Amino acid sequence: MLVSLCMIAYNESKALKGLFRDISLQDYPHDQIEVVFVDSMSTDNTKEKMEKFRDADYGFANVAIVQCVKKNQASSWNAALMTAKGDIIIRVDAHARIPRNFVSRNVYNINQGEYVVGGGRPNISSNVSSWKLTLLAAEDSLFGSSVASYRRPATQKEYMDSLFHAAYRREVIQTVGGFNEDLGRTEDNEFHYRIRQAGYKMCCCPDIISYQHSRNDLKSMIRQKYSNGRWIGLTLSECPGCLSYFHFAPFLFVMAILGCSVFALLGFPMLLYILLIIYGMFDIVNAVGCCTMKNVQPQFILLPIIFPILHVSYGIGTAVGLIQIPWWQKQIRNSPAKAHIEKVKRKVAKNTIK
Prior knowledge:
Layout: E1 3-9, H1 16-24, E2 33-39, H2 46-55, E3 62-67, H3 73-83, E4 88-91, E5 96-97, H4 102-111, E6 116-120, E7 123-124, H5 130-140, E8 158-160, E9 167-169, H6 170-176, H7 187-197, E10 202-209, E11 211-213, H8 218-235, H9 249-265, H10 270-290, H11 303-332, H12 337-350
Parallel strand pairs: 1-2, 1-4, 2-3, 6-10, 7-11
Antiparallel strand pairs: 4-9, 5-11, 6-9, 8-10
Helix pairs in contact: 3-12, 6-12, 8-11, 9-10, 9-11, 10-11
């Protein structure tokens, strides 16, 4: 069974060394693995590193390198899907690390009758320092980042609404097509929504695990949260079914602060006090909870400040996205994105291995 292991990258030269080593060490027969790299017109030496990996000849069935002029993630993933020829297509992020049995465990679970599989995807930090471990603790916390179950190692087999670093039977891509190129950070939410609507289940398996490098500085993390929140706001007008109530919790928090502040200015500060006390309790409890983790650092004392910064950044981003909906909808009104989804579907079907 041929497996297409796909990865996209834009200026990720510094992040690729570890992942490339992981790919080269996979225990699944290399002559049954096709590696597909998509370079989104990087300005560093990302493409050169991809070519060096290809030329090293690790015995893979094929190593394809594609350049995608469009730099958004959906376009690059579509380029990967249209290139892949495998019976199983696996998506791996450039900031990922994968164990030796990653491909083989995905194949095993697909062969058990599943159509989309994946596993837990906890965060890790590169170039470990006290500050980076503090940011990693904030990212790993349910309070600081996300309640999504796939962010933590799976303890039992269960079906979820979404997976990270997932493996798909080719049939699934042939049925639902590719990614919606109108979307930014939420292209995978909408893609998985269509998969669920088509009747497929996404299985999170305890024997599959991969890792994702967290952002190494607070500024980058704030920028990421803001962008994630903005795309949640925009996506509400395009595909509300692919979002959950949890996506809007930071936005509601920001709106509650603004509303209670208005009442405080009008002479009724009690609502604001109650809101801040309740939030502060959750903030402190979760910061203390992080101190039960391994590698506790003195800078964990800053977590009660980091948490609200991340929440407010995400919430403001969502507010901005909601405000921008009319202009964004006008911009994508004549977009060929949905037609391109069908193009991907036809291309994937054409590349089917007989």
